[in-house]
């Protein structure tokens, strides 16, 4: 238990942190908690320019525009960390570091507590790749720790990313491109109690693979006597059941003892601020960080000074913050306003969703087989493009299967949905253990599974089934599985819609597809000519999904030209008036209106600070039904559980796809494997749903294949392979936050309660050993979960 003197010393320190800007005096080490490092001796690249070609961030003459905020300080809107930021340094001076094994010395603490974390502003310089590299921290005792730095691309033509810093454009070598460019933030934990001596950057200098750039590094330490550090107070635009605004307060344990037993009660105070619901922190051990939610109501429309008030049951202390704006906003089309929206708590807690790709592409239902498989739902596009785009042989398959005169829209009569059973689908989703689903309401072929009104007749109401398939599925969910959240995939562009032509790009031109054998233009069945694609097709269709079908998740795809700001501002306001908290993904073309990232077929080695959702198919590399995929290639129950646990431990959700056949039937092996995985997921749901990632580490880097999750009341150790028993015990080489009096059990296993345990070692060298025998382990499959229930 954290001693009273330690807490008192930490909290009596009067710390004032600005939510917007910080004066230079506040960054001096004698009292400041953020210590930005001087990277200027290592600058070897120029990222910022004021005109095309002035800087060459990527080696191709392209660069970021100069920042519009005043250097040299930048405060993260997410973490509250303060950085020194170079900004524009003139026509020739460099301003960032391309990572090439540089060793960055660290200033001494001058009597302060050891550094708690290291935060980075970073990016990479190649489109459509993710660049990673391990940074190594060296301590004065010559031990080291490693953290994976990861960056999305600095710009994307479809605007599907969102960084900590967002710029309205980028300079090309000869002009301006108005796709957004980004810089990202990442925070690494440091070994508690150890003195950091230096930081060694990774080697990531490959032009072909993408180079990793560092703009700023800031170290965080706590109060001079250790204990509790309140890092940030961040009002969100979410609300609690009572209607109170949810405010997230991030707390670090920078001391040497765990917060435990009675823990800490947290509230907020300030002029015009009413704390309606307190937050509670039951367990926080050295080197760890947690974010606690507090409910408030504010009568002030202006920024105020607020105090985070902590109470350990005996004493009460406060830490002050300046210029914080509380209150729920009215949503507008202003991008800074939209940027305040974020994924709701139900989405963060849901963890597991089912994606369903279904449309006329299920008639062709072919994408070849691995290792030459491509997305089957892209059959039309691949089979009409230059053969250099067609490594999987779509054109050849099309010719030998359908002949020269066949056109894609000839699939419509065979898209029957004759075996579609909406109740069976939602029951399967629930049996799989998923908490939400997302249906492809319109893919890039422009064929809608919903009533699109006067925007188009290219729908399942006019062709094929001649039914509203989305309504049938949503109605079945509402009646038979009402706890499931319901989402709608929606492609913003349409490959070959003539009305899209003014906004076309590359081979997504909007002009008619060309028959690859005859050269004839293919028809766009059901097309209704309109004046403007954005205002007359895209926006009304998105509105229909939001208001006629009451989607919980707008899951856009392909960004590009859009009406998202207009759509989102109205939808956010309407949902708030209905007391509904809804989500929008990162592919709607406006990065500010992006609640979570959506990488495809992706997993990471470390927890991601920003909420993310990995989407992938049970098929090895297709979302739509692919008849070429053999049964033994689909994900097994073991693989589903492994993927889910790994992603959840790193702050992600898993959106797992199944592709339905043209008649609405499902591949039986997918159904069987989902249900088998679902039995395990439901039996162990407390270790999955409603959990958060562990700031200290998300997995074991060597030895056993282990992940970690936690709630406010318990900690979970998840073995993704059968634990190895030595001398009657299994070992977990990690600083698990377990204390005397805690109970350990093998979750969901009869006889696995009240297991004997002991801990050896200190800090990062701690090892937890749990007594267990093979008889107990034999009762489990897929993943062995040990729960530490806090006393």
Your description of this structure?
The protein is an alpha+beta fold and 791 residues long. The strands form ten sheets. A seven-stranded parallel beta sheet has the order 30-29-28-27-26-32-31. Strands 2, 7, 9, 12, 15 and 17 form a six-stranded antiparallel beta sheet that branches. A five-stranded mixed beta sheet has the order 1-25-24-20-22. β37 and β38 form a beta hairpin. α9 packs parallel to α10 and α11 crosses α12. The radius of gyration is 27 Å and the shape is globular. The N and C termini lie close together (11 Å).
Please give a quick description of this structure:
By secondary structure, this protein is of the alpha+beta class. It contains 13 helices and 39 strands. α11 (637-648) packs across α12.
